[in-house]
Amino acid sequence: MWWMVDLWLCLGCALLQPGRANPQNYPIIWEDVALNPPDGKNLTSSCTCNLHPFVCDRKCCCDPDCPQALSDATRRSGECRPEGFPEQTLDFCVPDGFVKKVNLPTGDDFFVLKKQAADDNFFGQLLCIKKSSNPKLSDEYPDPPVGAVDGNPSLVPCPSTATEPTIPSTYQAHTPIFIARNGVRQQLALPAPIFSAICVDQAVVGFLDNIPRGKHLAEDVYRSCMRAIPDESTLERFCEAGGVLAPERYRNFTYARTPSGDANVSPSLPYALISNNGSITTADPETVTSDFANGVCSNSVQHINVTVYYSLADSNSVEATIEQVSVGLTLTDVAASAGAHRQFVRVVFVDAAQQVDVLQPFSGNPGYLRGLPLLGGRLTEDPNSDKIAVQRFVRGITAPQGSETDGTCSAGAQGDSVRFGANSTTNCAIELTRAQLESFCNSGNPQRYLEDAMRDVYTAIVTEEARVGIWGNSDPDNVNEWLQVRVSNFPFNEMSFSASPASCSNVVVGYDLKVLTGVAFASNNLQRKVLYVHLCFRTDTWTFPATKSASEPHRFYLTSTATFVPKDQEKRTNVKKPSPPLRTNVPEDIFYPFVTSSAAQLRLCSKAAVGSLAAFLTMLVLL
Ligand SMILES: *[C@@H]1O[C@H](CO)[C@@H](O)[C@H](O)[C@H]1NC(C)=O
Ligand SMILES: *[C@@H]1O[C@H](CO)[C@@H](O)[C@H](O)[C@H]1NC(C)=O
Ligand SMILES: *[C@@H]1O[C@H](CO)[C@@H](O)[C@H](O)[C@H]1NC(C)=O
Ligand SMILES: *[C@@H]1O[C@H](CO)[C@@H](O)[C@H](O)[C@H]1NC(C)=O
Ligand SMILES: *[C@@H]1O[C@H](CO)[C@@H](O)[C@H](O)[C@H]1NC(C)=O
Hints:
Shape: globular
Helix content: 10-25%
Number of helices: 10
Signal peptide: 1-21
Bound molecules: 2-acetamido-2-deoxy-beta-D-glucopyranose
Protein name: Tectonic-1-3 N-terminal domain-containing protein
Mean pLDDT: 76
Number of domains: 4
Distance between the termini: 89 Å
Pfam families: DUF1619_N
Radius of gyration: 32 Å
Organism: Dunaliella salina
Keywords: Signal
């Protein structure tokens, strides 16, 4: 059964309302914003595999976002990823009331000291090291014996009996989603950019593996990939029934409630089909199909929005059943002459029993991960209170981007995210005839093309409201975790036109973004952060070539760069944890009234292994 719903054919929406398909900002929920947010970040974390906040990182047993039962199961199967060192601890004993405070020369995060009351006897008070302080790496497994021992042979008998791959009876994290298409059971695969930006159609969707990674707003966060369309016959093939642009490919199947059970959950179609001709109509979801004519594939799939509602057997369980699936598609017309078509995919798993979480993808936890977007936003004040917060730009700080097919700056495109740690240069072209160049030059608007290409980000920068996240998970509700973007070369000079050759000076053609970065936290778990952000606008003279016909458009370029400069800090990457510096000089008369010649200045070092300590104690007893 298809759910009967109104289906909106919003014709032209894709062009007219880019905000709907690609909003520029995340909303602020003012109730969550504190009036005086805390200063400083809590870096106490030793879970190095927890790379994504709010997401259960795969096989990361110390990730608090994973269900406990899942972590336990992973731990039992010995598949936990390295978790990093726990804090080094030094347990030592002191006689009651004897020592008030111990001043170990340890610095910041290297030691946690635990005092224990010592045994109430002479040796106990004198010689007591409770635990060695060797860093523990992770769970330890005894080295299993090899060869025909310990039941090894019986575990790999011959002849082998055929083993079917087991399909779990309920969905667990990362279990493939099973569907039935025309009665054939298969795994759900959606377009993904696996090896390059080109869509691969074999990427299986795993349970709880949101696409893109992270929790999403109800708003649009999509992963995208490109369909190359070299010629009309390729487009025709994509467009035919079951082709990668055909809507039924993404909706004409049912989902299996459990991996092994019948596939009997029909997706509901909640919203919008978009086409390109300007009127909005409703249609029956089952009747809308793609159609190829005159080099154009009408009703080609552009956005695929899948929401899977699941329920857990109980709150501590990792085993789930799919309750409902909703699929939203937006369609558009694609012409073979465009050369390429971008498809967008979003898959969100929602606990049917819980409210939908409204969260945003971040770029690290807490420090930035290289290659993820530099978080950016605009300082915003609540009109109804004194609260301030940062309204995040969905793509962070962006640079003007050329269109995929011809490299011209697309007005309204939001540009490409600047990525943490990646020095980059972006270009896009503006095409102007000589007359257009002259009229632009006399418009008194030198930033016009840059502003068109960057929109909100540009506005925020020049009003000094632009902020950059200090940490990869900077909380938009806490302005203290955001840094102002300092701006140079602003305000702009007047443009001036000179006729021969036709040239326009002082055009604002882009920016250079300089980001100073630093590292923090213990050397075994370095976290990267932003220390300072400086944006300098670039200006240039645009000259129309004298050799070119005045009516022929010439390409002028917007160019922006991003440079990440690491601060030269005291390097700690190779620092070994110092051994606990407990070092007690035993007084010369310790064995009074016995006298030994060698007992002078015996040294007890905490480095001493438990064995040698025991030997030492034995020696004392023998004495
Ligand atoms: C920092 O986080 C750790 C671990 O989550 C917690 O134990 C500690 O209390 C926190 N410290 C502060 C000051 O919030
Ligand atoms: C959808 O699938 C059913 C069989 O499962 C098939 O009969 C029908 O023709 C398909 N519809 C479209 C539009 O492909
Ligand atoms: C995707 O579908 C969900 C569930 O129907 C809906 O809440 C969300 O707004 C949709 N997202 C977009 C971008 O349409
Ligand atoms: C727009 O397209 C729809 C279907 O593709 C068609 O029914 C409608 O008449 C078109 N409207 C205009 C104004 O061309
Ligand atoms: C980026 O450029 C800066 C300054 O030129 C340089 O220090 C840094 O190493 C570069 N980063 C990369 C990843 O190349």
